[in-house]
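Problem 12. The chain below contains 328 residues. Write out its predicted structure in token notation.
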Amino acid sequence: MRRLTRHNSALLVVQTYADCRQYAVRVANLPPVQTIESFVLRARRICAHSLMQGENRALLHTRYKGDMTIEITKTHKTGAVSYEMVRRYPDEETMESLAARVRPLMLGSETIAFKKVIDALRTIIKTTKLPDEFEPLTTWLGEWNQLVLRGTDNAQALAIQTDEGMVTDRDLMYSWLYGDVVHSNAQEDVKGATYEQRYFGAVDVLARIVDFVESALYLVHKLYEEGFVKMDARVFEEGVTVRDTTKRLPVVGAYAREVTDEGPPDFESIDLTQWENGFELMEEVLQHDVCTRWSMRAAGSQIAPPATALMRQLWDSIASQMEPAIGQ
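Solution.
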């Protein structure tokens, strides 16, 4: 089976083989400017995450540095002294959402994989020498590779010893990400590391990755301000997260009729003369200051009372409660 899907300017080619259940995916690169604009939107979404704000940011920064505290407790009555190494981590569910936001930059097949972002920048400014205050783009790519590339035995800041050998923090991060979060891959169970060990190692590495992404976003913005990269300025301003989770829309009309076996009507040809006007049903209530705001929840299931009956029940309920006030 072969399927072609066009998404924006990226062409996704998927070919599957039913006999061996294998698949291959090729994603065409975006044009350089669109790659950089897409990176800006993604990086801003990462930087807008709750773990990058306020006290959470301070906590994540301790994981960036690999901080730990030694707590010493002495019991004066017995003279006993105990020592504990304490490291504090963010909530796992919150960390999972941050990992999901940053993953497209880490995955080489994604259109905004960080290497493709650097390649896009080099394509655009290849004939222009950057000022000395800018680190070479090759340096940025090299530092990124040190953070994310697999297949190296070098730890960033932490390595643990299990019964099966030494495990680096980078291996723990990928084991948690692909073995516990986005996939359920038993092969990612690295050398007998426990779930907690995988998570704690992942947090430290991801903290460094998102810190790097924030710096890279600043780099792109500076290149834009200095005129080295021309792009749509709106990518630095438009919303990248949902902040208000209560959605309010003005209602300009409300109509109801008895439930039938017919499917939803075609709104282009609907005959409103066959429907009851909900505003007229509530007109008397709205004339009194006693009721300033009320809510109606409509059920659309087959077992729910007819919509008209629901509105009448609501009307009768409100009207009965307001009788003393109406009579005064």
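Discussion. The chain has a mean pLDDT of 79. Students who got a different answer should revisit the alignment rule from Section 12.3.
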